[in-house]
Specification:
Elements: H1 3-20, E1 30-32, E2 41-43, H2 46-72, H3 75-89, H4 95-108, H5 112-125, H6 133-151, H7 156-164
Antiparallel strand pairs: 1-2
Helix pairs in contact: 2-3, 3-4, 4-5, 5-6
Length: 171
């Protein structure tokens, strides 16, 4: 079986599972009626399915590009890709994934308040039984501390740069 055949089988299984679970949203095989009642869902048309599949492919391409740029240390370019992915994921179950990655990237570049916005969204929408909840509570605490240090002029990133470049002027 070719790689393409395996990928197509996996996609069909994924979509079937989404339909069986009654999921709606960007990556589901069913759509909600305007009432918002998930029980009032209907089968997608081929056109709707094609549009969702294209969106899903675009989302994953953007996430992959963002991860590649992050691994190269190009954090601002990574943020750009991840923000584009977030627009596509808005309202889907993958929105939290995108926001989690954006919070990590913003923390890496010292944009702690922006990172905190994403973490707070995650905490607001998280299932209280999620095993990741303590991690994001810890992240929120860490970001709040970094924001306070930044406001007081004690940014740890600045201190790290001073240590790495001791002969540079810090005035």
């Amino acid at each position: 079986m070719s790689t393409i055949d395996k990928a197509l089988r996996a996609l069909v299984a994924f979509c079937f599972l989404g339909q069986m679970l009654g999921q709606t949203g960007l990556f589901a095989l069913t759509t909600s009626e305007p009432s918002g009642n998930s029980r009032a869902s209907k089968q997608m048309t081929n056109e709707e399915y094609s549009e969702r599949l294209q969106s899903q492919n675009r989302y994953h391409s953007l996430r992959t590009a963002g991860n590649r740029e992050r691994n190269k240390g190009n954090y601002m370019q990574a943020i750009n890709y991840q923000e584009q992915a977030l627009v596509i994921a808005n309202g889907s179950s993958l929105e939290g994934v995108s926001r989690g990655e954006l919070s990590r990237l913003h923390e890496l570049v010292g944009s702690y308040e922006e990172a905190l916005k994403h973490v707070e969204w995650i905490l607001e929408h998280a299932d209280v039984s999620s095993p990741l909840l303590p991690k994001y509570l810890e992240t929120k605490t860490r970001l709040l501390k970094k924001i306070e240090e930044q406001r007081e002029g004690k940014d740890s990133m600045v201190e790290q740069i001073k240590q790495e470049f001791p002969k540079a002027s810090h005035a």
